[in-house]
UniProtKB/TrEMBL annotation:
The keyword Amino-acid biosynthesis belongs to this UniProt entry's keyword annotation: no
Sequence similarity: Belongs to the ATG101 family.
UniProt KW keywords: Autophagy
GO biological process, one term: autophagosome assembly
Keyword Glycoprotein assigned: no
Disordered: annotated segments: 126-154
GO function term, MF aspect, one: protein kinase binding
Name the record gives this protein: Autophagy-related protein 101
Amino acid sequence: MNCEQIALEELHVERFQLKEVLKILLHSIIFQRALGECRLRDVDSELFDISYVRCDSRLVEARVEEHAEAFSSAIERGARVSLAFFERRARQAAFGLFRSEERVVWERWTIPLVVVPNFAQLHRHMGGAQMPPGAHGAGRSTEADSQDEESRRRQASLEAVLRRRIEFILTVASGRREHIPPADGLGGEALWFEISTDADSWSGLDLLKQLLSSPPQLGSG
């Protein structure tokens, strides 16, 4: 089976936005590939003025939350987050004595992320505006207002980009369906997707946790 490859455009996010951005995009994609019976749930973002749809499943929500939390803590500069959907197939071993299961990936989404400095932190790092003695009160107010305005502008810009990404996901998911396997090969109540990243800056502890919590590597199909 050929694996369909879909890549989103690169996203530039501040660290405090990373977890919520991942949750929005991962849930939006997973819901579009939740074959068979799946209840939906409309969700308002905790950080952005955005509503999106996710599977009404504790198992799915727990897995997305787990990975979004881990990645948001471990990704330092940038990474590509991969969301792979797989089909379970029975495989007969040598001499027909044993049967095992293989996972065949039929679709993979890539989410490239770049972590950018927080505007307020960047401003402090660069030294900010030097105020003359006796002018600290008015100066601080003006400087804070400027920082708040820039933060709001950046937040609104990212919201607009996320809306376009969600629209792209809906369009692509509905337009590419010929490669989707039958729903009965997805394992019933078990998960039919895996989330991973190629982040170049995992700490040793984060990497160990990731390896221990991940099943064996999926086949490439």
